[in-house]
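Fig. S4 source data, part A: sequence.
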Amino acid sequence: MDFITPKCKNTIYSSDYLEWIPASFEDFLLELKHVKNSCEGTDPVCLFRGQINHKWFLDSSFVRNGIKKLFEISDYRALPSEIRNTSIFNKTMLSLLLLKLNILMKPKEELFKKEQDGDSWFEFLKHLQQYPCKYPEDQKFIPGTFFLDWSLSEDIGLYFSIFNGKETQFDDNFNSALWIFDAGSVGKIQQISKTSKIIDLMCSQKFRNGDEGFPLLFYPEKQITNNIKIKNQLI
């Protein structure tokens, strides 16, 4: 998706072409179709992520909370790009995350016993992501996970761009965002079906050194299913 220019003449765009602001919803739909058609490869994979606040960065909950705690700033977006984009910062955050997941916290044996029914690490991290207040021991460290939710459906992305957790909202002063990622444009991609394999890969020397900083696309093939969902997500 490098250097795709807008289709509509009234669409405002940034100097690096990464941010577009269509003039109307009709123009937005035209631009959305234009971007999708511009994805690379014979079998393109276009992913979507909706955010209710266009100012939010694509940072996981762990990174957001880590910035606040490590740098003692209330708004994680205030961290200068000169720090955020350094390899030292990213290696530090990775090391802290692996310390948390591999040493300080892990699923209880009850979940590992259900491994044949699903992914125990995924169930653990999913619940940690959705209900961090239920884990006071995590608050002593840095709460959150490395998960970022993307979808193959632009409709789901659009829904979450206007969903504030309780209800949808839209008005003339409402500034949300729909992120679009062309998975075929970045070269090598690791498509992984087991959370434990992601953690093992993140622990490897090549990944930690930044030699293979490729995106990790996670497709949980099998989740633990039970009417009492909370029971299967205990730590």
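Fig. S4 source data, part B ends here. The mean pLDDT is 82.
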